[in-house]
Design brief:
heterodimer, A: 299 residues, mainly alpha, two-stranded antiparallel ribbon, 2 strands, B: 327 residues, alpha/beta, Rossmann fold, Alpha-Beta Plaits, 2 domains, 6-stranded mixed β-sheet, 5-stranded antiparallel β-sheet, disordered N terminus
């Protein structure tokens, strides 16, 4: 009898982990579709997609006058810009170099800053919590969906750049920063890897945005504070007198993704960047959790 | 003067079937403001429980503590026998709630709003989600507008949507904060019918309202709060019985009527147009004698009778103040 009981209990227990995983994915899917269906999100992605188009057209017009824009990367423009005319694939790298300092993190800051605070100011947070979504589960869902947004935003830039590059410029073998040449297929792979690394570069900042979002009941205030923080830190990272501090600032190694275009790939700074993002995500993620799980929801 | 005994009485009677039970539940906000002060609430299973009080009396803070949205400063709350907020994951799937008005996502349709709230519930089966959402929309009469963006809903439609969210699953307890707010009279009647239906199915309904007659029409039990304290709780009939009814006379000769009633020892006489009202005479006075005396004196009567005490009379008797005084 006891064995029968155990069997029954086992049978009952068996589907539950799969179930709870499936049902947790349900809230994540709901979160993602809710985020991605907002006009605001689509507008942000639209702006990001427009940046490579503008760069591509500008470069095309410039070279249309017969002169290449600054031979051998001169002229002091964004990285990789000079190579775009030779190989459209370089528009991907150039577009990421242009959007990574401001546009991409700003979009992430808006989505992350609004994630909890926006629900609080709309009043929907209380209904999610009594559903009951569970505070930890809801916060994890929010962070996961912001991370997905980081990847989506980066891919939008990269794919738009690839499309524009292929349309306006020739494609072909890629000359690495080290001077060696790699095939177009491998160049494409490297571009994909770079997009993923760029998206991962934003995870630390996304955690900061999430934390800020748990501090206030106003979505606008959280978005403004997060983006303001980004600009402050970017300025600090540009001040040489703060050199002792700079290696610990989250955007400090952002541009290291260019090292993935070396042959052989130079990993040091990329790894340091990812490690730093991990630390930021852990610290601010924990802070957000501590705050959100103990907070009185009065909105 | 009448029922103060029940208010200050010992611990409330909390049967084993109490669905909501609080002990010394207290909330002091960070500013030092005492929103809820030592609340001992007992909501019996199967009741429709009216939660009354003026604005700012601590009703919503209490509801938020019950739902685990706010941590109490001290005291405990148990819902369906489990402590809150500790057992929120077990308790809340069995509780449907409408708290401080509806809050839909304006950019989602009514149906998508419900799908989202349902997917936030870890116990809700995704396979039956669409069907349950459809049933909930039907039940509150919103099926025709389900595809419209919630931004375009009127307040009454949003209120219905909020109710639908509370009805996505079979619930053992419904906590409804001002459920008829913003509804037209027809909508109010529908909601009352719905509440009665749900109660008949065995769901306990905890209903906060500032509309006394609404509580009187729907509720079996009620509690009255003022300035964060519980003044009284119990069956509605008992609460209303605590206050005496009023004698009401309609006559074209109000002056004479008031004079004669006063001569017969009736107190608290008020004249308003052709209406004369007074405190109901004590039980040993035969009402028919009063009307006969009036008629003999040549007072023409249009109507004569004692109006049953309302909950509003009880409330005024308990608090010594009007209902709409903010705490």
């Amino acid at each position: 009898m006891s064995r029968a009981d155990a069997a029954v209990a086992g049978e009952e227990r068996a589907p539950s982990p799969r179930r709870s995983l499936l049902w947790s994915l349900g809230i994540l899917r709901s979160e993602l579709t809710t985020t991605l269906r907002r006009w605001r999100t689509l507008a942000l992605l639209g702006v990001l997609a427009a940046v490579p188009v503008l760069i591509g057209i500008a470069v095309r017009i410039e070279t249309g006058h017969g002169s290449s824009p600054g031979p051998d990367g001169g002229g002091g423009g964004p990285a990789f810009l000079s190579q775009v005319t030779n190989n459209g694939l370089f528009l991907v790298f150039a577009a990421l170099a242009v959007t990574l300092p401001v546009f991409l993190p700003m979009a992430v800051g808006v989505v992350a800053g609004d994630s909890v605070a926006g629900e609080a100011s709309a009043g929907t947070l209380r209904y999610l919590l009594v559903a009951p979504a569970g505070r930890t589960r809801l916060l994890l869902t929010k962070y996961a969906s912001v991370l997905v947004f980081c990847l989506v935003a980066t891919l939008v830039v990269a794919l738009s750049a690839l499309a524009v590059g292929a349309l306006l410029f020739p494609l072909g073998e890629v000359t690495t920063i080290s001077g060696t040449r790699i095939g177009f297929g491998e160049g494409l792979l490297r571009a994909g890897l770079i997009a993923v690394v760029v998206a991962a570069s934003l995870t630390g900042f996304a955690a900061i945005g999430l934390f800020v979002s748990t501090l206030t009941g106003s979505g606008i205030a959280a978005m403004a504070a997060t983006v303001g923080l980004l600009i402050t830190v970017q300025i600090m990272d540009g001040i040489p007198q703060l050199s002792a501090l700079r290696p610990y600032l989250f955007p400090h190694y952002w541009m290291s993704y260019a090292d993935l275009l070396r042959a052989p790939v130079y990993w040091d700074e990329v790894v340091r960047n990812l490690g730093l993002q991990g630390v930021y995500a852990a610290v601010f993620g924990s802070a957000a959790w501590a705050r959100f799980t103990t907070k009185d929801i009065t909105a | 003067m009448t029922e103060s005994g029940t208010a200050a009485g010992p611990a409330p009677v909390t049967e084993p079937g109490a669905v909501i039970e609080t002990r010394g539940l207290t909330k002091r906000y960070r500013g030092g403001q005492l929103a809820v002060d030592g609340l001992d609430l007992g909501v019996p299973a199967g009741s429709v429980f009216g939660f009354l009080g003026p604005n700012g009396s601590g009703k919503t803070t209490t509801i938020r503590m019950l739902m685990g949205l706010i941590d109490p400063t001290s005291g405990t709350a148990r819902i369906l026998g489990h402590p809150m907020p500790g057992a929120a994951r077990t308790v809340l799937p069995q509780v449907g709630a409408l708290i401080e008005g509806p809050a839909p996502y304006g950019f989602l349709s009514g149906r998508d709003n419900l799908l989202r709230y349902d997917s936030a519930d870890p116990t809700a089966d995704p396979r039956t989600r669409r069907a349950r959402v459809g049933q909930a929309l039907d039940r509150v009469g919103l099926a025709a507008a389900a595809g419209k963006k919630a931004r375009a809903y009127s307040l009454g439609m949003k209120q219905r949507l909020g109710l639908a969210a509370a009805l996505l699953q079979p619930r053992r307890l419904l906590v409804l904060d001002e459920p008829t707010n913003g509804l037209d009279p027809q909508g109010m009647r529908e909601i009352r019918t719905l509440v009665r239906e749900l109660a008949a199915d065995g769901t306990t309904v905890f209903l906060s309202s500032h509309l006394l007659d609404e509580i009187e029409q729907v509720c079996t039990h009620a509690a009255v709060m003022a300035r964060g304290r519980l003044i009284t709780q119990g069956p509605v009939a008992e609460l209303a019985a605590g206050a005496r009814g009023r004698l009401a006379v309609t006559t074209p000769d109000p002056g004479d009527a008031a004079r004669i009633l006063g001569g017969l020892g009736v107190t608290g006489i008020e004249v308003d147009g052709d209406r004369v009202s007074a405190e109901a005479p004590p039980g040993d006075v035969e009402l028919a004698d009063l009307s006969a005396a009036l008629v003999h004196a040549g007072v023409r009567l249009r109507s004569f009778g004692v109006q049953r005490a309302s909950l509003e009379d009880a409330f005024v008797a308990l608090t010594g103040e009007g209902f709409d005084v903010a705490g």
